[in-house]
C-alpha cells in the first residue's frame, strides 16, 4: 500500500502561509489575529499570473465571526506583504 505524503506547511517567520484561490492567509491558528492578502487584479506574463493590486486585511482569527481591523491596498504582492507582516506583529504585541 503506498504511503500518503505528508503535506508540507509553508511558513514565514514562524507563521503559517496558506493559499486558497486568490487569497493568502498569514498567521497561526491559535493567535488572536491574522492577515488576509487578496489579489484583486493580476496580469499574465507568459505562463505566470503576476499580482498588480493586492488588498491587505488585518482580521481577528475567528472562523465565522472574523472582524476586519484594518484594510489597505498596495501595488504588488511584495509591498502588500511588507505592510501585512508589520500589522500582524504590531497587533499581536499591542492588542
List keywords for this structure.
95 residues; alpha+beta; six-stranded antiparallel beta sheet; 1 helix; globular
Structural summary, described in words:
19% of the residues lie in helices and 49% in strands. The protein has one domain. The mean pLDDT is 90. It contains one helix and six strands. By secondary structure, it is of the alpha+beta class. It has a six-stranded antiparallel sheet with strand order 1-2-3-4-5-6, covered by helices on one side.
Helix content: 10-25%
**What is the gyration radius calculated from CA atoms?**
15 Å
Q: How many E-type strands?
A: 6
Instruction: Give start-end ranges of low-pLDDT stretches.
Output: none
How many domain regions?
1
Strand order of the largest sheet: 1-2-3-4-5-6
Summarize the structure.
The chain is 19% helix and 49% strand. The chain has 95 residues and is α+β, with helices and mostly antiparallel strands.
Topology diagram in text:
Elements: E1 10-12, E2 15-20, E3 23-26, E4 33-45, E5 48-60, E6 68-75, H1 77-94
Antiparallel strand pairs: 1-2, 2-3, 3-4, 4-5, 5-6
Amino acid at each position: 500500500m503506498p504511503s500518503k505524503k505528508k503535506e508540507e506547511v509553508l511558513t514565514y517567520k514562524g507563521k503559517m502561509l496558506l493559499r486558497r484561490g486568490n487569497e493568502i492567509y498569514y498567521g497561526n491558528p491559535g493567535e488572536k489575529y491574522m492577515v488576509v492578502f487578496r489579489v484583486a487584479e493580476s496580469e499574465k506574463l507568459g505562463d505566470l499570473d503576476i499580482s498588480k493590486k493586492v488588498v491587505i486585511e488585518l482580521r481577528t482569527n475567528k472562523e465565522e465571526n472574523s472582524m476586519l481591523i484594518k484594510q489597505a491596498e498596495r501595488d504588488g504582492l511584495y509591498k502588500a506583504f511588507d505592510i501585512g507582516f508589520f500589522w500582524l506583529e504590531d497587533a499581536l504585541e499591542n492588542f
